Structure formats: C-alpha cells, structure tokens
Automatic annotation (TrEMBL):
NCBIfam families: transpos_IS4_1 (NF033592). Keywords: DNA recombination, DNA-binding, Transposition. This is IS4 family transposase. Gene3D superfamilies: Transposase Inhibitor Protein From Tn5, Chain A, domain 1 (3.90.350.10). Belongs to the transposase 11 family. InterPro entries: RNaseH-like_sf, Transpos_IS4, Transposase_11. Residues 106-339 form the Transposase IS4-like domain. Pfam families: DDE_Tnp_1 (PF01609). One of its GO terms (molecular function) is transposase activity. It comes from the Bacteria. GO terms for biological process: DNA transposition. SUPFAM superfamilies: Ribonuclease H-like (SSF53098).
Length: 355
C-alpha cells in the first residue's frame, strides 16, 4: 500500500470532490470516502486481484466492507472518475526537453494506437488512441474505442501550432485534410500505396524511379499533388532518404517474416520503396528535408510509451467482461501510467535515441 500512497500523492487536489461529482460514490455504503475507494481501486489495478480477493483486501485493510459483487459494481462506476483525473494529469507539464530552434513555437505530437484484448471466449478488442507531446512527455489527448474504430488522425482534436507525427497507418488524404482544416502541421510516414502522387499537369509521378537516383546521404524533396479515387488534389511535400545498409537488411527480414506470417507476397516495388524513409508534410521549404526526416525519428517515443503500458502495467490484456468494467479498467491503468510519468519526470532525464 505504500507504493499506492506514493502514486496517490500525485493525484489532482480535487480528486475526492471529483469522485462525488462523477458518481463513483453516491451512497457511502461499503466504502466511506473517495480516498479509500481510490486505494482499493489502485490495488486492484496494480495487482489484478479477483473480486473475491478484493473483498477480503477491503476487510483486512479496513478500507471497506463489501462483497465481491458490491466491489465490482463500485469499480464499474469509477470509469468516468478515472477519465476526469486523466484529463487533468494529461494537461500538466511533466518534462520540458530542449527543442531544435525551428520547433520552439510548435507543440510536437506523436500519435499511435494500441489494441487491448479481453480475456475469455468473447475475445473483444478495445483500442487506445493516444497523442503524446514528445517534448513535455504528456498526453495531449486519448480515446478508448472498440476495434471497429480505425487508426486515424481524425480521432484527435487538432489546433494551430500542433506538429503531428504519425506512422504509415495515418498517412491518407482524410488525415491530411483534417490537419489542413485545423491549421495543424504534420509529418506522416508513407507507404507505397498511401495515395497517388501527381505533378501540376496531372501526370502520375514514379517516386521509386526518383528515389533510385539518390546518392548516399542525399535527400529527395518534392512538391507534388496527393490524389485519391475521388479526384481530390492536395498540395503535399514529400521528403525521402535511403536507409543505411544495416537498416535495409533489417527491413528485408521484417518483410520476409510478414510474408511468412500472413501467407502473402509483397511486391518487389513495395520492398524497394521500404528501403527509404519517405514522409509527407505540409511544412514550408524554410525547413530542410534533413530536419523534417530527423524530426520524424522522434515518433518512437510514443511506441516506447505503449511498450511500458503493456509490459509494466499489463495493459495488453483485459481481465474484465462487462463493458463498464472494461472502460474503468482501461482508464484506471492509464491513470496509473500517467502518475508514474509524473514521478519519473521529477528525476529529469533526456530521452535516448531509438535504435
């Protein structure tokens, strides 16, 4: 309980009032106050105890007196409480890493999503969509949905001053339009079929042929029009650079594993395209292609964040079946992760470069 008390010391000052406001405690039966309920909920989230075990923990610690079913119902009502706490934690400044001069006035955000499987026969999948400020190491926004909601920039609220960095799953016309509509800037990693690229005359551009002419260390920097099946045409800047021989070999191994696992054949064109780091952006030409490609490398931090969630907090599997319990569990796990980030941030350290 000492570790939990340490985490609770970093909760927002009004978390107890918020408990009543969000309806986590309506009648003080079984547990008398928000602090005791939070202690029990965190114990459950950290240790994964069964409901029967939690009933006994409450009795032994004198934090409450309730049956396993009563604890389950009480825990289910904590979902909105945890969510409101997360919103306050996510908006607090944890760390402020030094930026490159051209990024000084920008909020640089990496977005990603991670699936969480429910245990048991149902096997339902929930998806955590997450936006991380990679210089302050805080959550800008998150959303928990079913797996039917795909990975998309449109899942996030954007505003002027944001520079959004995302991988290939997010590189599409709708995502680009969402950024442009909200006056946000972006750097998206491209796959070969993200969208068709044309010149001003409407002629299709063969990116592979252009990239093949790049010398070692040279960057491609193209102003093109991105088009889709609906005929939409959006000005886009494409920057690319050939990977190192070691990185190319790693990429080839990954693609071979993918072919074996999915029983598919990846085209030679796609394999060649994957020998380059290719990004699309709406940043102006005062920012060099080298700077843009280096900035994209910062996206790895959100992946590390997810790995920490899944490995340290066992976020990757759900021990719940009822929908309200699932939402409370996911929001509760994220709350603990944010509290841990706050504690870590007080021993400031610089992020290490991703290999």
């Amino acid at each position: 309980m000492e570790n939990i008390a340490h985490l609770m010391s970093e909760l927002p000052k009004d978390y107890e009032e918020e408990c009543i406001k969000q309806g986590a405690i309506v009648r003080r039966r079984g547990v008398s106050n928000p602090a005791d309920l939070m202690m029990l909920a965190m114990f459950h989230l950290q240790n994964g105890c069964s409901l029967v075990e939690m009933s006994e923990v409450a009795r032994i610690t004198k934090l409450g007196n309730m049956s396993d079913v009563a604890f389950m119902k009480r825990f289910e009502k904590c979902g909105n409480w945890f969510k409101s706490i997360n919103q306050k934690l996510a908006s607090s400044c944890l760390i402020d890493y030094q930026k490159s001069e051209w990024l000084e006035r920008k909020t640089v955000i990496a977005v990603d999503a991670s699936d969480v499987a429910e245990k048991g026969r149902s096997g339902r999948i929930y998806r955590l969509h997450f936006a991380l400020d990679i210089f302050k190491m805080i959550s800008i926004e998150y959303k928990i949905t079913t797996a039917k909601v795909g990975e998309s920039i449109c899942n996030f609220t954007l505003q002027p001053g944001y520079l959004v960095i995302a991988d290939r799953a997010y590189a599409n016309i709708k995502g680009i339009e969402h950024c442009n509509k909200n006056n946000a800037e972006y750097i998206f990693r491209l796959r070969k079929n993200s969208f068709t690229v044309r010149n001003e005359e409407g002629k299709k551009i063969d990116l592979g042929a252009i990239f093949a002419k790049l010398t070692s260390g040279e960057c491609a920097d193209l102003s093109v029009l991105a088009t889709n099946l609906d005929g939409d045409k959006i000005p886009v800047r494409i920057c690319a650079k050939r990977k190192t021989p070691e990185a190319i070999e790693q990429t080839k191994k990954k693609l071979r594993r993918k072919e074996s696992k999915n029983q598919c054949v990846i085209s030679e064109e796609a394999k060649t395209f994957n020998e380059y780091i290719v990004v699309a952006t709406n940043l102006n030409d005062t920012i060099s292609a080298d700077e843009i490609l280096e900035t994209y490398r910062l996206r790895w931090q959100v992946e590390i964040y997810f790995k920490r969630l899944k490995s340290i907090l066992n976020y990757g599997e759900l021990p719940k079946r009822r929908h309200d319990s699932v939402i409370a569990w996911l929001n509760g796990k994220l709350m603990i992760a944010l509290l841990i980030e706050i504690i870590i941030s007080k021993a400031a350290f610089p992020p290490q470069e991703y290999a």
